[in-house]
Write a structure and sequence with these properties.
Number of helices: 12
Strand content: 15-25%
Shape: globular
CATH topology of the largest domain: Metallo-beta-lactamase, Chain A
Order of helices and strands: HHHHHEEEEHEHEHEEEEEHHHEEHEEEE
Structural class: alpha/beta
Radius of gyration: 22 Å
Number of strands: 17
Largest sheet: 7 strands, mixed
Distance between the termini: 43 Å
């Protein structure tokens, strides 16, 4: 079965976004980032000019589009083979992306059903089938609190993007010792959800835990103006946040706010480019709440054409990791981030909740350790092979150390 042109359009813009994100990853060398940035711009430009569901102006036929796809894939492979000064991993990334693009070209139909002028581009790309998958991407029931532990609930929802596709996203709700509720990474507002939550307790605190998870905050503030908003450091300085009109009352730091009654420990996980994720540990239930530090996507909930990319980048369950660009950003402050991650593991959570994918309902510590393996990779191989991370051990000073030995 050939990939329909509508799905191909979703892949086009998804790949362009991926390439653009990788192009901004400070962990990659400049020649590689330039190559990825040029590929992202090239891909977006001719996609907009194609007579198919993802086009704006019908200047190119789908056959011409596929030919340009093939040229782009070949160029990425050529760049990967020719950048002699780049590391093997960086060159393999370029070759892998180019190979996947050629495979998509070979499997794609060249007969679009709709094109520019036939409704909005988002509507053309979305279609009935895509809308159905959007709901399959999340964990039902949506927009309703589901118990995770005593005084802890999760709310699964969906996050549309401009291309009409959707991503499953999750909010965590914690009841504080005073009976008030804290909403971690709020999802979309609905009156029904507000009523359900208020049956559990008064909503008093809203938390934007990193620079990506804040977009629904203002909706909740508009309907609950008395709530107090807490944000990851630096979020308030971003231009998009300032333009949005969202209110950020306090920045979060390693010191837990007194208003939370001592039930939650905050562990900042730093990165470069303004990224910092504020992990939260609910001690009474041993529940660790993350956002994007772990992404554990189940294959059936990922669109079929995108599953190879998700697999290639290690984002699939059961031991999923965040996308490569986020790993690169965090690794720019590797020592500090690894120390923070070790602290999270040392807390020995029973369960780990995060924003995307199947969260760890049991055996949280071991599953977390495996999903954070990218932070604990030891740089050199021993005589017996690649190094591995051993279990955390007490350091004699109330902390922990990571030991490594050859496999």
């Amino acid at each position: 079965m050939m990939i329909p042109t509508r799905i191909h359009g979703l892949i086009d813009y998804g790949v362009a976004a991926l390439l653009g994100g990788l192009a901004m990853a400070p962990g990659l060398p400049r020649p590689v980032r330039r190559t990825l940035g040029a590929a992202a711009a090239y891909h977006t430009a001719y996609s907009l000019l194609t007579d198919y569901e993802g086009g704006v102006t019908p200047a190119l036929s789908m056959r011409q589009h596929l030919a340009l796809d093939a040229m782009g894939g070949a160029a990425l492979i050529g760049a990967g083979l020719s950048l002699r000064r780049a590391s093997e991993a960086d060159r393999a990334l370029l070759v892998g992306l180019g190979t996947i693009e050629l495979a998509v070209v070979a499997l794609s139909s060249n007969a679009p059903r709709r094109g520019p002028g036939q409704g909005s581009m988002t509507g053309r790309l979305l279609g009935h089938e895509a809308a159905h998958h959007g709901h399959q991407a999340a964990y039902h029931p949506l927009d309703t609190p589901k118990p995770a532990a005593e005084g802890v609930w999760v709310v699964d929802s969906i996050l549309p993007n401009p291309m009409g596709a959707v991503l499953g996203v999750r909010m965590t709700v914690i009841r504080l010792p005073d009976g008030g509720l804290l909403l971690h990474s709020p999802t979309r507002f609905t009156y029904a959800l507000k009523r359900e939550l208020e049956r559990l307790g008064p909503i008093r605190h809203l938390v934007a835990p990193n620079i990506a998870h804040w977009t629904f905050l203002k909706e909740w503030q508009d309907h609950l103006p008395e709530t107090v908003s807490w944000a990851a450091p630096g979020l308030r300085d971003r231009a998009q946040v300032r333009r949005s009109g969202v209110r950020l009352d306090h920045d979060l730091f390693a010191t837990t706010p007194a208003e939370w009654g001592g039930a939650i420990e905050v562990v900042p996980v730093p990165g470069a480019a303004g990224f910092q994720e504020m992990a939260m540990f609910h001690a009474p239930t041993r529940t660790l709440v993350l956002t994007d530090l772990v992404m554990n996507l189940e294959p059936p909930k990922v669109p079929l054409p995108l599953r190879p990319l998700a697999w290639l980048f290690g984002m699939l369950a059961p031991d999923g990791m965040p996308p490569p660009y986020l790993r690169a950003v965090v690794k720019r402050r590797h020592a500090e981030a690894a120390e923070a991650a070790a602290r999270l593991i040392a807390l020995e959570p029973e369960r780990v909740v995060f924003a995307h994918g199947r969260w760890f309902e049991t055996n949280g510590t071991e599953q977390l350790r495996r999903s954070l393996r990218w932070l604990f990779t030891v740089g050199k191989r021993g005589a017996g092979g690649p190094a591995r991370v051993e279990p955390l051990k007490p350091d004699g000073h109330g902390g922990v150390t990571l030991a490594a030995e050859p496999l």
